[in-house]
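Co-fold these.
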Amino acid sequence: MGMRLKIFLFLLIISTGCLSQNDEKTLNTISEPKEITLSTTTSVDDSGLLKILNQPFEEKYKIRIKVIAEGTGKALKTAELGGSDVVIVHSREKEDVFIKEGFGINKRDLMHNNFIIVGPESDPAGISGMKSGSDAFNKIANSKSRFFSRGDESGTHVKEKVLWKKIGMLNTGSWYKSIGKGMGDTLIAANAQNGYTLSDQSTYLKMKERINLGILVVGDPIFYNPYSVIAVNPARYPDKNEKYQMVMLYIGYLTSPEGQMIISEYGKDEFGHALFYPDAIS
Amino acid sequence: MFKGGILNMNFLIDGFLKAIALILSNDPYVMSITAVSIKISGTAVIISILFSIPTAILISTNKFRGKKFIISLINTAMSLPPVVVGLIVFLMLVPAGPLGILQLIFTPAAMIIAQFILVTPIITGISIASINSVGQSIRDTAFTLGGTKKDISLIILKEAKVGIIIAVLAGFGRAIAEVGAILIAGGNVAFWDAETDTYSSYTRTLTTAITLETSKGDISTSIALGIIVLSIALSVNLLSNRLQDRE
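Predicted complex below.
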């Protein structure tokens, strides 16, 4: 064997020896940053809450939170497929199914806000000031006024479907436009064509400067829009146990007085009005 | 609040001016997105070249059964719908999928894989076409002069060089403009830095960022990103056209 080869093998053996002395855990911490993936809805992400809410947690525990923002349906499906470790969504019906089928565990109420019906100043259906969401929907349908639906299985879309079902409405007709888009896009579309839509409070407040739609119907209890945080069941993906520990830390933080305080304050500076109301009893 | 209408261009002009300001001030969010775009598409193209060009040479300089079929397969694959490729990559890479163990979902690597799949048929197919167009007389001359198979291959490569560069540019042009596949496979992720109050892209590219910013109604950022990606795509195409003229 040549001299160079001998030296190389020598160094190789030495370094292998050194490495095995080290704490395996330390090595892992150096090579991989600790990270959990949160799949959530566009309304939560677009509100800008997450960056403010997540930051103290990330700094304290040195765990990075990777946020994938999609509609509620997609967020839950991503979690089901193991693509995320925790979800924040707002659709009680879908959440119940998610948990019943064993994909999610340890659900907590996180926060809520309210849906509102927004529409053009001209208000062709004459719904301004009405107190009942379903009555307003009735008037919109009867007058065949343009209505824009997210059509994307999001929490907002699901709530909208609940309202239509309540009045026994089959959505046919060119006045009903299902566009398969996020809340921001849907507000923009409704604004561009002077139509109505169902929106969550926070996205509307964020978009208010850019659109001409006004709040027409608000206050019906059916508009209550609660958000939950749910951990992805580690039993389904056994090598995710470490992630699960971190997720429980995260959920603990979100539902703690600190996390809940951040939620209750968010938006007051920018809009004079909180975008979400904290719900966790911790 | 603003009024719409064809004659009211204020928001467009306003957005455009703000966009220029973002670009000229090296806005860190916009720069990080541009860097990710170029990194992802560039890496996908480079890896593809390592595979495509040897494959193209092999296919076009050899006779074998099913050669015509393979070539038409490659040409058909050029028009693979990007979103479909993205969906397949997503389903493969999620933990529930066959390649889930790699833990690549929602990472730049997933996006590179998706773009590699989209770009390889293009680079391979166009390279094959330009190698085929190298005249038979050149090959015969090289053979007559005592060239080995390797020598002949090198001569062919030299003659087809410009055509192959055009193939690579076409691949890159396709990659940089792509949005569907990388949106699904990458997740459009950006991380927020509290100290500087800016977002920094992780899997957000020029095209996927435009999708997001437009849906949030942030027109000026969308326009800024659009200007950048348009500039890159146009430069690539301009270069390609100039090379084709010289051919």
